[in-house]
Amino acid sequence: MLIEIPSLFSADELQQLRQHLLAQPWGDGKATAGVGSARAKHNRQLAEDNPQAIHLGGQILARLGDNALFMSAALPKKIYPPLFNRYGEGESFGFHIDNAIRGLKGVRERVRTDLSATLFLSDPDSYDGGELVIRDTFGERRVKLAAGSLVLYPGTSVHRIEPVTRGERLAAFFWVESLVREDSQRSLLLDMDVAIQRLDQQQADAESLLQLTGVYHNLLRRWSDV
User: 169-190 burial string, b = 16+ CB within 10 Å, else e?
Assistant: First the structure.
């Protein structure tokens, strides 16, 4: 399942967000990479404990909490605090797969990376290259979204960031531990939830709608890990 969530932030909000981020000290992105990924990773990244990054990451999470599509698609149990990366000319990240478990810095809590997410922060016309290439059972998809839009995809996917050849690519990225571990089950639940909402808007037969809603919650009860 690959889900695009558009327009999480307005143009003015994005401009302010980029200004705050670019004023911060950026370090080598290898600092948060696993041993295998570090060999393929060539970018810059804000430190996990950077106060401005923590503040802006909180704004992203608050916006996502109000987004019905994200909540329906991800069914989040835990969310790893957003990180921020930056790719300039010649920088890239070769094919890799994200670690299955991510530890939260400074605490003993762990997050299982059922879903990976990238929030694009740069206007796609402002840079060349930099596409997120996701390889999974659905084939290979190239993703380069409008600034303020987010892509959500299975954490099991092999993926890469194409080299940037002009300009600069700025993004936030993070992982979600879902209430429902299996991607195919989450996909079915999302389809059912969208259908229920559509039927409700169309004022469909109340008894049929109640029955379908019951099926949704019974499946969620069966599949969820709480």
Answer: bbbbbbbbbbbbeebebbebbb
| Residue of 118, 111, 119, 115 whose CA lies nearest to 75 | 115
- Tell me what the mean pLDDT of segment 180-189 comes to: 96
Q: 3-class DSSP state for residue 194?
A: helix
- State the burial class of residue 18 (Cβ atoms within 10 Å of its Cβ: 0-12, 13-18, 19+): middle
With a cut of 90, say whether residue 4 has pLDDT above it.
yes
Write out pLDDT tens, residues 192-216: 999 999 999 999 999 999 999 999 9
Which of 218, 200, 217 has its CA nearest to residue 209? 200
Q: Are 162 and 133 in contact (CB under 8 A)?
A: yes
- Does residue 82 contact residue 131 with C-beta atoms inside 8 Å? no
Q: What is the DSSP letter of 114?
A: S
Residues 6+ apart with CB under 8 A from 131: 142, 143, 144, 161, 162
118 beta partners? 151, 173
3-state secondary structure of 65: helix
Mean pLDDT of the chain: 95
* For residues 82-106, average pLDDT: 94
